[in-house]
């Protein structure tokens, strides 16, 4: 009870502070996206990849700076140029694509340094996410990956018992280098062991994960 109250207080105050602190970066990113890539600043509302599972499995819309071509989620299924992307996502163990051709030049930079995720601070203020928590999973991702990795479904309940986070245990440990089975195991471990101290330790490791870009795609 006290943990949840303290965590929510930190989330709100921390998000407001970070939005103010990073407002120049967010503004510059918005301008560069507009100038270099036709389309909206943020990933479109209609993009199915922005439908994520929140606490107790509730669906919410994730906010992200657009780092790909417009309608990237549709292109991977309908455009022959990106057929390999669709296949790779569903055959690899981490649901990620290396050297995705749909990613723009600016997109590669902001993804590497997690700048594309800064708008999620507004998800935190809305109460849909937390600053620290498990990954915000795609509904299809959980369904498909549990078929590839039998036994991982035992972790789903723990992962969905808390709000997803902008940063988290697996994000500061391996990011996209970690396969799904290990990732969800780490997320479930965080959900079971969560505490203010654990959150602080993760936050202390986050700046280096952003700067180094290790494991980003």
Automatic annotation (TrEMBL):
The chain crosses the membrane at residues 12-35. Coiled coil: none annotated. The keyword Membrane applies. GO terms for molecular function: phosphotransferase activity, for other substituted phosphate groups. Keywords: Membrane, Transmembrane, Transmembrane helix. Residues 7-211 form the Bacterial sugar transferase domain. Pfam families: Bac_transf. PANTHER family: COLANIC BIOSYNTHESIS UDP-GLUCOSE LIPID CARRIER TRANSFERASE, UNDECAPRENYL-PHOSPHATE N-ACETYLGALACTOSAMINYL 1-PHOSPHATE TRANSFERASE-RELATED. Belongs to the bacterial sugar transferase family. This is Bacterial sugar transferase domain-containing protein.
